[in-house]
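Researcher: Let's do a round of design. I'm pasting the structure tokens now; please hold your answer until I've finished.
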């Protein structure tokens, strides 16, 4: 895999193949992010195209203070916010729909109630999910569906971290959120996806 420096040098030399690879690598996630700001997919696609034009125009001024991909996504979010503002739909990432801080990350029914000998403790610890089941096509489709149904911020953070392999620092920089917020959003998202998987597996067990 090329380093950022090698990729940047190739782009500045006008190597079209490297640019195409960069687009293929990031296009899907860019559409997901843009879609969280603007009104429909068609507009999101326009924002992504505008972003790539901005990337090409800004290559000479890129200073490398951030990774190349976080720089690209900062251009993307700025374009998406500007487009949303023109459409009267301005919502910064920090305001995108997400449950408040008191939302439990784990179903409260998993814990012992007040009045119990050990209130607040686990009734039973979560069982490890069977690895072979996690690789089945049906299970993977369920994971995709569960992620798609998450609130906007949770959806983006779990997609960037667990699907596309971004580091916590890269997610924080690209989305302009704190490390604490990133960790909370990721934990909530993973808990909801896990709960969906557990319900699916439990439903398959004969009564």
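Researcher: That's everything. Go ahead.
Model: Designed sequence:
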């Amino acid at each position: 895999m090329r380093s950022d420096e090698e990729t940047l040098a190739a782009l500045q030399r006008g190597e079209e193949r490297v640019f195409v690879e960069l687009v293929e690598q990031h296009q899907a996630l860019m559409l997901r992010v843009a879609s969280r700001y603007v009104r429909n997919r068609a507009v999101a696609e326009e924002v992504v195209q505008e972003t790539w034009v901005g990337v090409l125009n800004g290559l000479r001024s890129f200073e490398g203070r951030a990774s190349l991909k976080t720089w690209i996504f900062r251009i993307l979010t700025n374009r998406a916010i500007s487009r949303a503002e023109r459409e009267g739909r301005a919502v910064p990432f920090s305001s995108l729909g997400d449950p408040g801080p008191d939302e439990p990350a784990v179903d409260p029914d998993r814990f012992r109630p007040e009045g119990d000998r050990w209130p607040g403790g686990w009734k039973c610890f979560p069982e490890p999910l069977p690895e072979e089941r996690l690789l089945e096509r049906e299970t993977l489709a369920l994971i995709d569906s569960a992620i798609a149904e998450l609130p906007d911020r949770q959806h983006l953070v779990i997609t960037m971290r667990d699907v596309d392999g971004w580091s916590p620092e890269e997610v924080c920089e690209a989305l302009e959120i704190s490390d604490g917020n990133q960790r909370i959003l990721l934990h909530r998202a993973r808990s909801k996806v896990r709960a969906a998987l557990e319900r699916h597996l439990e439903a398959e067990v004969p009564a």
